[in-house]
Amino acid sequence: MRDEKIAVLTAYDYPMARLLEEAGIDLLLVGDSLGMVVLGYPNTTHVTMDEMIHHTRAVARGSTHTPVLADLPFASYDDPESALANARRLIEAGAHAVKLEGGASHVSQIAGLVAAGIPTMAHIGMMPQRVLVEGGYRMKGKTADEAEKLLADAAAVERAGAFALLLELVVPEVAGRITASISIPTIGIGSGPQCDGQVLVTHDLIGSFPWFTPKFVSPKATVAAAIRAAAGEFIRETKL
Length: 240
Ligand code: KIV
Known about the structure:
- It is a single chain.
- By secondary structure, this protein is α/β, with parallel strands linked by helices.
- 43% of the residues lie in helices and 15% in strands.
- The chain has ten helices and eight strands.
- Helix 1 (14-23) packs across helix 3 (49-62), helix 5 packs parallel to helix 7 and helix 7 (144-160) runs parallel beside helix 8.
- Bound molecules: 3-methyl-2-oxobutanoic acid.
């Protein structure tokens, strides 16, 4: 495990990128979670390349020195050629790196992107773009077989050249074993404290999407309540 942990938050627009940079965040993630918390989709499988590009451009405009990582959305990296073409579009939009969901199954995409000079983060554990086939969001690594598969995925993406590995909803003990077994940093979400860094969806952290908050998040602000109160005050003043 590294000495200084890496702090990552999602940003989907210019003001949030600026605010998070001013707060000192290490890395801005234009996550495809924007599909739910900004665009109102039921899950991330509806997010398009054009939407990712639109939001990546806005985040890039709000960041002066913080690296911007953008998600390759659902079905945009099914083969190495489409992965490269779509990753190039995100880089042109202002991203410095891209993230894709997959382990050993996606080593040819990762190796191709890295060979083309595009830093690539892999994302294993719960992969939200697979929610339709999995039927929900569940912890991964509960059985010995699942844990072994995650360890093998981690080794495979490191060998393929990924610069970091995101672990989503991985049993904390398994996340710790993965972190100890590879030399690239692990960034966890709902995977316990033994990762090299942590990432959260900013809307969950600040309480601006109150209709759903993952169990592992302790919101640090209540932005939804502040918005309702401010709007309520304006409405009352207007109607006086
Ligand atoms: O899209 C996203 O926001 C993510 C989360 C796991 C951080 O990938």
